[in-house]
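TL;DR need structure tokens for one chain.
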Amino acid sequence: MLQDTIVALSTAAAEAAVSVIRVTGPRALEIAGTVLRARRALDDLPARTACRAEALDGSGQTVDEGLVLVFRAPASFTGEDVVEFQGHGGLLVSGTVLAALLAAGARPAGPGEFTQRAYLNGKLDLTQAEAVMDLIHAQSTLALRAANEQLGGAIGREAEVLKQELLPVLAHVEACIDFPEEDISPETGQALAARLDAFIHRAQRLIATSEQGRILRQGARTVICGRPNAGKSSLLNLLSGFERAIVSPNAGTTRDTIEEVVQVHGFPLKLVDTAGLRESGDDVEQLGIERTRREMERADLILEVVDASLPPEPGVEVPDELAKRHLRVLNKADLGLAPGWQQGEAAIAVSCRDGAGLETLREAIRQLILRAGPLQEEHPVAVNARHRACFERTADKTAEARRVLLEGLAPEFVALELREALQALGEVVGAVDVEEVLDVIFSSFCIGK
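>> reply
TL;DR here they are.
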């Protein structure tokens, strides 16, 4: 794959002021040089300097004018020669330039292939490559911060620390295999087991951040529930900042769930507006009510909306495990709170009609998130599902190695489990180098002295 030269439109395929076309690969300068005419040959242009250039079509006619930049290997995003043309953003003009580059010998880039080449050429590890998409898809300031930390190598550094903790243990065991007279004594075995315990604890701390990672990437699933006409859809619109859901005085208007992602003080929320909870003989409405109950069971947060202008009625039944993630919204406060309603930490008065109490509600949601624990404002690491699977396999194999070690079985069995643990750990960043084990053995033990 790395023998090909690829090209792609890196900006959106839509009319815009500017379009960016990128070419990368071993023939990037040659191919781009046949289509882009600058004041001198692309080979002679200074790196990372914007120069005026004309773009030619297949017949040699000028179709666009813009800027060309050259990034020479290995000091480029992909680690290869890269040429970037910044032209006008019309669909026809950018498509014509792209077609000329394809006719000159480039092939269309596959999805994510520029980032894939950066990984294959050692410019990024796998976690950093994944962070590129997290950065693009971030929908809150916290998600953006987490993506930037991952792009900066935070998860890769954690994996490296774990590897450096496990390598000396494996090196010790390997030495015992090579020199059977140096058997692992019970005292030494206990010391090695203690080091493995510390390793497992650190790995489990990383695994625990996966829930935070899920919410940062997808948003905390926040179900808005309550009785009909309490103002659930109005609250969704208020928090979204626009008319996302239909609002009607007729009960049963909302029959299916409506979702919208919003940001509340930097925290991403996936708001889910649901059908009103009541007894109904309407089959379609009853299906919506059943869906509401299912949504509540898998919610990260629950916002129960009540019409606080009316006397209190029995509230929504919230599962015990979600009690600390439950916030009651006393809507229609502009009409005055009826006797019996009490404001407090878990009950916030608002008016969806005029927006009164909105900032108090947003702060209460922030505090609810922090108390419930799905998100933290300080988050050095937030692993995704793939990272979690690798770290879990690493922890499981290390725990098995510890068990085998303490049972006094042959060191070969311990080494086998530890090697599999390292293999899983290497998969996090996409690199497993078993030669490093040999390096540690010879640097840590005076073998053959």
